[in-house]
Design brief:
The mean pLDDT is about 85. The radius of gyration is 37 Å and the shape is elongated. A hairpin with a 5-residue loop joins strand 8 and strand 9 (about 190). The chain is built from six helices and nine strands. By secondary structure, it is an alpha+beta fold.
């Protein structure tokens, strides 16, 4: 059974167990091995952070107004965002007045009506993921995991007014007329 009893050290007198000097030597060996293992783990961790900070893809789970962009390269995202904004601005809208007005329907695009996407904050956030040292980018990417960004929209009131005036000039040219009230024989007020 002694052949299976593997020892990494032997007593100087050849007997089983450890001598005091072997015990001290063993402590030093374990200390060196532990330091080497800690250095290896730290090296692998630093390499992983360095690699993660150098990625050009957007962090996993990131969304923009319901659009999942996690894992997408940042350049592809910027191009796709611009294409989606152009498509939305070119979307046709039908303007219809009340049927009693008797005015025809008009087809205009959202861009002609003054609609604009407010994606500046989203673009700044994506640019921040690519700014700084690799360590800063890794930290920024780590914080952005699962982040939900939103694109707002705004309407230029002057452009909307100009589009309405161009679509129905006769409607806007009419001036309001004062209402007339009549009092009936039963003392009821009727607006004419």
């Amino acid at each position: 059974m002694d052949r299976w009893n593997i020892r990494f050290w032997k007593r100087k007198d050849g007997g089983p167990g450890r001598s005091a000097s072997a015990k001290d030597h063993n402590w030093g060996v374990w200390l060196v091995r532990s330091a080497a293992a800690a250095a290896a783990v730290a090296s692998v961790a630093a390499g992983t952070v360095w690699w993660y900070g150098g990625l050009d893809t957007l962090p996993a789970g990131m969304t923009v107004s319901g659009w999942s962009i996690g894992g997408m390269p940042s350049q592809a995202f910027t191009a796709e965002l611009a294409a989606r904004e152009r498509a939305m601005t070119a979307r046709a809208v039908t303007l219809a007045a009340a049927p009693s007005e008797g005015l025809p329907e008009r087809m205009l695009t959202l861009g002609e009506l003054g609609w604009r996407a407010d994606s500046g904050a989203v673009r700044e956030r994506i640019a921040a993921l690519q700014a700084g040292s690799r360590w800063e980018r890794a930290w920024s990417r780590w914080q952005a995991r699962g982040e939900q960004l939103a694109i707002g929209a705004s309407v230029d009131a002057a452009a909307l007014q100009a589009a309405a005036e161009a679509a129905w000039p006769q409607l806007l040219a009419e001036q309001p007329v004062d209402a007339r009230r009549e009092i009936t024989a039963g003392d009821a007020v009727r607006i004419v």
